[in-house]
Fold this sequence. Notes:
five-stranded antiparallel β-sheet
Amino acid sequence: MPLIRQADVDEVKSRTNIADIVGERVALKSAGVGSLKGLCPFHDEKSPSFHVRPQVGYYHCFGCGESGDVYSFLREMDHVSFTEAVERLAGRIGYTLHYEDGGAAPETSGRTRLFAANSAASEYFRGQLLTADAETGRRFLGERGFDAGAAAHFGVGFAPRGWDGMLKALTAQGFTRDELLAAGLVSQGQRGVYDRFRGRLVWPIRDVTGQTIGFGARKLFDDDKGPKYLNTPETPIYKKAQVLYGLDLAKRDISRGDPRRVVVVEGYTDVMACHLAGLTTAVATCGTAFGADHIKVLRRVMGDDSASGEVVFTFDGDEAGQKAALRAFTEDDRFNAQTFVAVAPNGLDPCDLRLQRGDAAVRSLMDAKVPMFEFAIDRKLAGFDLATVEGQVGALRAAAPIVAEIRDRLLRPGYERVLARRLGMDPTDVRREVERAARGGASASRREAEQRPADDPVGAPAAVAVTMASLPRTADVAMERGALMGALQYGHQIDQATLSRALAEPFRHPALEAVREVIVAVPDRTRVGWAMDAVNAVREPYRSLAGELLMSPFPAKDEAGAVASTADLARRMILRTLDREKNELLAAVQRVPADSDGGRALRVRLRDLDIERQRFTES
């Protein structure tokens, strides 16, 4: 396969702002001069430890140690090859790639072809919605308050009733049957391959970057014996437990909101109704219950590292909707944001609410929301007769574990009082039962830990890694660490001769010395991307430390201050070297006769050192 020319690889990377690419997946905010931070997409965390430095095109997570450039980010997130990552970014900026030996562009394959097939299918379905055969589908949308503009905004399409209309259309575009099978667009039967979606309204399901990865299709005709909703099966690019419908449209308003709010609804038409009514942060799951993977996706988009955000679940008022709410409650503590439940009057879903009462009624759902804990408590109490002592006691025992799960020490006493009021019981009795439930949960956790197999890696001590936090807290180490941070982040903006002089002598700490020797070996420290290459060249186990030095927020108010501080650190490193040499010469002078050639040479060198030191002191 022809290789992309290295000059093109470098050019595409230099023209791409890594913050734009990462920002499509992770809500980033300022973390100091030239640094952005957010929740790491590679591991689950409560507080942001994932940093991006756009000026050097590099990311690093201080929690899990993942680091790299824009190509490695795409490769890790989307599981594409290096070539596919370069080609994808080149396509974004309209750059024409050239290949070694004059070769033509290699045929795209794997995930790239699946994305292309889904995109082509989406266009096909949208076109079919305009045909005479789609009248039933258009009527369905109109009866729910969605006109042609709404359908176009959400990409709604129609799958014809025939067996192979889409199959023929996409094979004519060059897609193979194997590719369409892998994308979940067609199915294999005894008579051969046929369209998976037939006689249905079709909603494109997109990932957070806006690429179509699958479809959800709603039954329209009575003779359709399939389920009411049919989704794309699991494919290499479609994992329903990690997908939220509408997130590509909602993410911008989610990340910019004050407070940052996500509204979780139950279906495609509910998402449409909410967005059209003004709740433009609404999303929905795709044929599966709301779970832990959905939370990870939302937290990254929200930048959920404080309690200032809101996640509002809107569920139908029926039994199934209440069960869905309680399932969401079991995952509640995974959010830092406050969680609420909003149930519309008469149990209407947002789509029906908009139809019957208008856009304002949909927006007013946010005024009627109640905290998730309060909702869960009320659902538990609903099954007991609170007019009897037996009912009160049973309700207390059922609801106490819910209050016991509240980890916030300020919230829990408040909910103990809420529960006491609901039950009409003494708050002291309620608090005692909640504490008993909390102890029971802790005991269960201890029993689980005790029963864990000896070879279970959970709880095993992690390998010791050299990090900035593990460095000794001494003046010498602090200065060496600061000099390396400045060199990696702003070294290209100061005098190169001064920087080389500052790093010429070995450092006293071995980990910092491992980083220094790589920086010194770089022939051109003004070249774009040199710092990333230097970090990658640092030997283990010090490479992660090098990544931290490159990514840590530099202690300065602005870039000009950071450059000045870097130059000052270089000057101080030179002065440290000169002072050490001077002390060694002074000791040598005591051992050599003053009138000897050696003694005179030592005094000349001491004089030169004083002159040189004076120059750096005054600079």
